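pinned: reference chain
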Amino acid sequence: MTAWKSIVVAVSLALTGNAADADSGLVHISPKLALAEPCGEGASCAFSWTLATRYGVALKFAEDRYGRRDLDWTLLGVDLARISAPQIFYAGAHGGRKDIVIQLTESTATDEKRALFQLGHEVIHVLSPIGPGLQSSILEEGIATYNSIEFVQSAGIDIGPNYIGNEDYEAAYWSIIELENAQPDFQARTTALRSAYGSLSGLTPRQIKAAYPAISNALANRLAGIF
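pinned: its structure tokens
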């Protein structure tokens, strides 16, 4: 059998009798997240929301609260990945490019609430990417978790801190609640902090205390800690 005939046969098997086996490793995503449906004549939208367009909404939501993202980085989009937790993937790191991808877990493929929750978290890391291999601060992770809950709520979906489901992230979240109670204008001050230092990680307790003068030294030390 010639080489090209072998290729045709292999493709035919994948598309016919063995299609289920060939497809068993793929992630099936909810149409709500992947399929842009025309809204119809007279509707206020052109197409239904997908993960891509919600990415844009989530980014604007974060920027409105914590300032414009660092435009030196190119946002490539959102992936579903076989990972245990969502993350920022530095796709261009080895080629000298500043490309980033938000990676959500497989569990979000058919779970709209979880997809928005993870998306609302990761867009905070998109504002000031710290680069591959570096650890974020409790301040940054706390704000990311705080933002994820606010973003899901803005979509009209019921959610609260009990949804977080991870002790470390819960502790970081409650640190931001403590920050908010002491410094109600913390979001505007966070914007100024990012503008001054280009990041929410790698800051000293003194820098954090200066940004939020109403907080205790103990909270400033905690927020400056490595997550």
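why pinned: Residues 1-24 have pLDDT under 50 and may be disordered. The chain is about 50% helix and 10% strand.
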